[in-house]
């Protein structure tokens, strides 16, 4: 009887190469594409798939600090592509999956349909890979240097290979463990081990970024897919308790009060919330990732330092801030009389028209810790628009 349990699928993203043909000062997977890094688009494609439960990324040893997302397992790659893939497979072996989809990080424009089709085909086959039939005529020359047509080649049995190349996990793990030589791809590793590989539907948009021209083509594909717009929403939430003091600082404005807010920095709970919302829209974690509270240099730091960093990061990623909506939750002090000053100060720090910044307040009807007057909470939503 067949196992009725649904198959589990992990994605193994190979990002350990140097990509010299693409030019630039850094490897192509870290270069900007449509306001983000190439690898960010690739990762989000697999994150968005309901079929993928785990993601392992194989990085060059020099790049191990470039990805810190909690949902990713990162491992150092080897001297060859095959060695890098094996490192990723061995990392997965600690908690095996039924199937693994091995994908090049440089294929950032992979459509959702390719991932879904490959997972579906793995229900019937041990090894599958997407391919696109060659439709153009193929010419031959007498030498690599020649530009004179010497003949034509039969294209009827030729396919353009793509990734992800997909396998039952134990099958491809054993194949990689059994060989030491490098291979062009994982289909070659499988075939050397005698594993039949079935070609599934690829897609013309699933291009591999190799040269500078490919960046422009990939950006066109992504813009068409998103309707030409990339709009992000991020939210933030933060809490700080009351302690000794004679004022609270909210959105950069000092408000006289018989207590202060406690925190590692200046405890500006509202500004922290807006900052976290920007980081969230960028999928960049929170303030703690960029300014760890364990680092003494940030003790008592002005929160504008964090906000300015988040705004600068958004700009570097190609985003403008559309609007900010922040709600401060407390019984006291009264926020209304200071809201305009808060909007103005936040606008000054962010380089944003104050009319795009909403600062408002509410109580919790004397319920919970804010209702008991133990502290202040804040929530915020930020919109980012690709420029």
Automatic annotation (TrEMBL):
GO terms for molecular function: 2-C-methyl-D-erythritol 2,4-cyclodiphosphate synthase activity; 2-C-methyl-D-erythritol 4-phosphate cytidylyltransferase activity; metal ion binding. The record marks 155, 208 as: Positions MEP for the nucleophilic attack. It comes from the Bacteria. Pathway: Isoprenoid biosynthesis; isopentenyl diphosphate biosynthesis via DXP pathway; isopentenyl diphosphate from 1-deoxy-D-xylulose 5-phosphate: step 4/6; Isoprenoid biosynthesis; isopentenyl diphosphate biosynthesis via DXP pathway; isopentenyl diphosphate from 1-deoxy-D-xylulose 5-phosphate: step 2/6. Residues 231-384 form the 2-C-methyl-D-erythritol 2,4-cyclodiphosphate synthase domain. GO terms for biological process: isopentenyl diphosphate biosynthetic process, methylerythritol 4-phosphate pathway; terpenoid biosynthetic process. It catalyses: 2-C-methyl-D-erythritol 4-phosphate + CTP + H(+) = 4-CDP-2-C-methyl-D-erythritol + diphosphate; 4-CDP-2-C-methyl-D-erythritol 2-phosphate = 2-C-methyl-D-erythritol 2,4-cyclic diphosphate + CMP. Gene3D superfamilies: 2-C-methyl-D-erythritol 2,4-cyclodiphosphate synthase (3.30.1330.50), Spore Coat Polysaccharide Biosynthesis Protein SpsA, Chain A (3.90.550.10). The keyword RNA-binding does not apply. 4-CDP-2-C-methyl-D-erythritol 2-phosphate binds at residues 238-240, 264-265, 286-288, 362-365, 369, 372. Its cofactor is a divalent metal cation. Keywords: Isoprene biosynthesis, Lyase, Metal-binding, Multifunctional enzyme, Nucleotidyltransferase, Transferase. A divalent metal cation binds at residues 238, 240, 272. Residues 232-387 are annotated as: 2-C-methyl-D-erythritol 2,4-cyclodiphosphate synthase. Residues 1-231 are annotated as: 2-C-methyl-D-erythritol 4-phosphate cytidylyltransferase. InterPro entries: IspD (IPR001228), IspD/F (IPR026596), IspD/TarI (IPR034683), ISPD_synthase_CS (IPR018294), MECDP_synthase (IPR003526), MECDP_synthase_CS (IPR020555), MECDP_synthase_sf (IPR036571), Nucleotide-diphossugar_trans (IPR029044). The record marks 21, 28, 264, 363 as: Transition state stabilizer. Its EC number is 2.7.7.60, 4.6.1.12. The keyword Nucleotidyltransferase applies. It holds the Pfam family IspD. SUPFAM superfamilies: IpsF-like (SSF69765), Nucleotide-diphospho-sugar transferases (SSF53448). Belongs to the IspD/TarI cytidylyltransferase family. IspD subfamily. Bifunctional enzyme that catalyzes the formation of 4-diphosphocytidyl-2-C-methyl-D-erythritol from CTP and 2-C-methyl-D-erythritol 4-phosphate (MEP) (IspD), and catalyzes the conversion of 4-diphosphocytidyl-2-C-methyl-D-erythritol 2-phosphate (CDP-ME2P) to 2-C-methyl-D-erythritol 2,4-cyclodiphosphate (ME-CPP) with a corresponding release of cytidine 5-monophosphate (CMP) (IspF). This is Bifunctional enzyme IspD/IspF.
């Amino acid at each position: 009887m067949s196992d009725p349990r649904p198959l589990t699928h992990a994605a193994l993203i190979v990002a350990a190469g140097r990509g010299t043909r693409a030019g630039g000062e850094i490897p192509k997977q870290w270069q900007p594409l449509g306001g983000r890094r190439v690898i960010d688009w690739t990762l989000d494609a697999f994150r968005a798939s309901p079929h993928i439960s785990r993601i392992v990324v194989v990085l060059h040893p020099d790049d191990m600090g470039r990805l810190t997302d909690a949902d990713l397992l990162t491992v150092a790659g080897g001297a060859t592509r095959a060695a890098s893939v094996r490192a990723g497979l061995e990392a997965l072996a600690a908690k095996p999956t039924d199937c693994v989809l091995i994908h090049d990080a440089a294929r950032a424009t992979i459509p959702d349909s390719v991932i879904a089709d490959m997972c579906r085909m793995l229900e019937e086959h041990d090894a599958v890979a997407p391919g696109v039939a060659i439709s153009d005529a193929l010419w031959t020359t007498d030498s690599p240097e020649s530009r004179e047509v010497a003949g034509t080649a039969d294209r009827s049995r030729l396919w353009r290979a793509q990734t992800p190349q997909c396998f039952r996990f134990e099958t491809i793990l054993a194949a990689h463990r059994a060989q030491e030589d490098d291979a062009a791809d994982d289909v070659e590793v499988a075939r050397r081990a005698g594993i039949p590989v079935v070609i599934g539907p690829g897609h013309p948009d699933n291009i591999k970024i190799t040269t500078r021209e490919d960046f422009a083509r990939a950006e066109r594909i992504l813009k068409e897919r998103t309707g030409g717009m990339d709009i992000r929403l991020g939210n933030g939430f933060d809490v700080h308790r009351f302690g000794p003091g004679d004022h609270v600082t909210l959105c950069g404005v000092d408000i006289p009060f018989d207590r202060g807010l406690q925190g590692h920095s200046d405890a500006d709970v509202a500004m922290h919330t807006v900052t976290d919302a920007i980081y969230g829209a960028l999928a960049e974690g929170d303030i703690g990732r960029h300014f760890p509270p364990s680092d003494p240099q940030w003790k008592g730091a002005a929160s504008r330092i964090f906000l300015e960093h988040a705004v600068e990061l958004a700009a570097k990623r190609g985003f403008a801030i559309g609007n900010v909506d922040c709600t401060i939750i407390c019984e006291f002090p009264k926020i209304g009389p200071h809201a305009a000053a808060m909007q103005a100060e936040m606008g000054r720090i962010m380089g944003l028209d104050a009319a795009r910044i909403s600062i408002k307040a509410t109580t919790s009807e004397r319920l919970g810790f804010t209702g008991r007057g133990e502290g202040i909470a804040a929530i915020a939503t930020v919109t980012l628009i690709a420029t």
